[in-house]
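Box 3.1 — From sequence to structure: ABC transporter substrate-binding protein
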Amino acid sequence: MAVLCLLAATATATACGYGSRAKDADTARVAPGAERIEGLDSVRIGYFANLTHATALVGNQKGFFQKALGATKATYATFNAGPSEIEALNSGSLDIGWIGPSPAINGFTKSRGKNLRIIGGAASGGVKLVVDPKKIKSLDDVKGKKIATPQLGNTQDVAFLNWAAERGWQVDAQSGKGEVTVVRSDNKVTPDAYKSGSIDGAWVPEPTASKLVAEGGKVLLDEKTLWPDGTFVITNIIVSQKFLTAHPRVVQAVLKASVDTNRWIRAHPARAKAAANEQLAADAGKALPDQVLDPAWKSIDFTDDPLAATLRAEAAHAVQAGLLDAPDLSGIYDLTLLNQVLEAAGRSPVDDAGLGVPRPAT
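Predicted structure (token representation):
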């Protein structure tokens, strides 16, 4: 069976807001007298106009990336889809990107481990099962209902199928038909589908979950409760292997900026939330209203740890659902530069769960 998107066509939007278009944005702020790193003129950074990518949103808006890069200019491209971001990385039009676990796995396996590496973490959590409280009053009531997920084989689709299977419900993963019906629905249209009554609920990331709540939905389950310590990867940082080899100091500077941004987010949550929303307005043309922004922001944890063990588990869930052949993920992580940044900041290293680039024996 071919790898699915995990496995999806690029034309459909997925869990973290994946779509097929990219919009270039250039908001570099080069300090006077700054020097280029490794003589490089610019580095191209990609992310989604989505709160689960708030590290990139805030890092861009507050200038953390440009500060770390000196006179190497930070340029930005925003994406609506994981597949399109992977394509940009593979084509060389993107160097570093923020992306969800499913497209990262897919991009790595489809290239047989040759095109990308996960080099850091960005966010955990921010995924909920939101339902119509008039139709669904308990978890058992989900059986027999129509539940939306963002895309066939995407991270939330796999999570919902795995949850349903653990409850003993039979569902055909490809068609979505069974004892609960899975409706694959673009996050942009899911709130309208909920309002029209064509779905009874949705297993979706933020801010879609909070948009549904604003329409009268009820949070029936927060995916955090299904994971040890309440943490699971929702956003990673990836890099082109070619760019990583050619410009390790530039990559390290971007990672330092990411770590600095996350530290600032944790220290100034209200200001960080406002900065993320301001950048969302610039990138997507519309800011989120407070009734959506506030609960969505609270449900996301920003972390430098890529939570590698949870990515391994998510891949296993996709295999169990029949959506993915057992992948060889050896070498999908290279956390060397991130751990150097963390060590310099007096922090402990993070783990790659045995999926790191093999190192020569010494």
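Summary of the box: The domain at 131-227 is CATH 3.40.190.10 (D-Maltodextrin-Binding Protein; domain 2).
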